[in-house]
Amino acid sequence: MPISFKEVSYTYSPKTPFAYEALKGVNVNFTEGKITAIIGSTGSGKTTLVQHLNALLLPSAGEIEVLDRKIKANIPVKDLKSLRKMVGLVFQFPEYQLFEETILKDVCFGPLNFGIEPQEAIKISKEMLRLVGLDESYDERSPLELSGGQKRKVAIAGILAINPQILVLDEPVAGLDPQSSKAMMKLFVELNRRYNKTILIVTHNMEHVLAYSDDVVVVDQGSVIRHVTKDEFFMDDDILNELKIAPPAIINVKAMLKAKGIELKGHHLDLESLTDAIVKEIW
Predict the structure, then answer these.
(1) For the chain, domain boundaries
(2) Which of 74, 87, 184, 265 has its CA 20 to 30 A from that of 134?
(3) Strand pairing partners for 95?
(4) Do 22 and 40 contact (CB within 8 A), yes or no?
């Protein structure tokens, strides 16, 4: 089933002196069952784009199709509750999603809201908290006591607890230490590969885009200007330079080798492949 935007535009504060067109006639089809990285400079429209997927924002013009649901400009969405169970959105700022007295109550809120019995909701919520790396000692703590990275883990656990088909993550590992960041990204990959979850990740981290994504969508000044596979994206030096995006380390190494007159045959996007190519070239 499709996840598509058709001529979607969105204007903040319309018909006021502060009107700002954040999306401009966006057309894009996200591939179900894949991990898609959504990238672009700050203010390009990435967050506005993904907030349309569960009708947190409604388009000013155009149409969005999410699985079997259609979201149209100026038309109230029917049965919004079921849509938001299918599409789980983790905000860029996790404190927007945390409001209960304790962490366990916060994670339980979603399952309870969708009709899960209290005991089952508690069981699911504890499982999700452990999954994101928070042990039993966190259950009764207040979300206000947590660090930014811990709040992010709780927010992700809260969305995982409702078991959405599509998981939309806005800068999901910002504020996490490198070890937690890697573990979280591996969790998203497992959810995708083992449970066939469609994962959409807004990110500035090109190392993560290279290591974990299948496709890349590039947003620039409110428009989707590129939708390609990860390999196609990183083989295109022009787009990286055009967007002024810092490339992953392995791309930098290839560029340095080329500057030294060592131009490798083929495309090498992992360390093992690159090492083998270098050995063959110099020997």
Answers:
(1) 33-55+79-231
(2) 87
(3) none
(4) no
What type of residue sits at position 276? D
| CA 134 to centroid of chain Cα atoms | 21
Q: In terms of Cα–Cα distance, which of 162, 216, 215, 208 is closest to 188?
A: 208
Residues in the chain: 283
Indicate if the alpha-carbon torsion angle 250, 255, 260, 261 is positive or negative. positive
The answer to whether 32 touches 3, Cβ cutoff 8 Å, is yes
d(CA 111, CA 120): 9
The reported pTM is: 0.90
Return all residues near 59 (Cβ < 8 A) that are at least 6 apart. Answer: 8, 9, 10, 23, 52, 71, 72, 73
Mean pLDDT by 10 residues, the chain (283 residues): 92 94 97 95 94 94 92 82 91 85 95 94 96 94 90 93 95 89 92 94 94 96 95 83 78 76 72 74 69
Local structure of 38: helix, strand or coil: strand
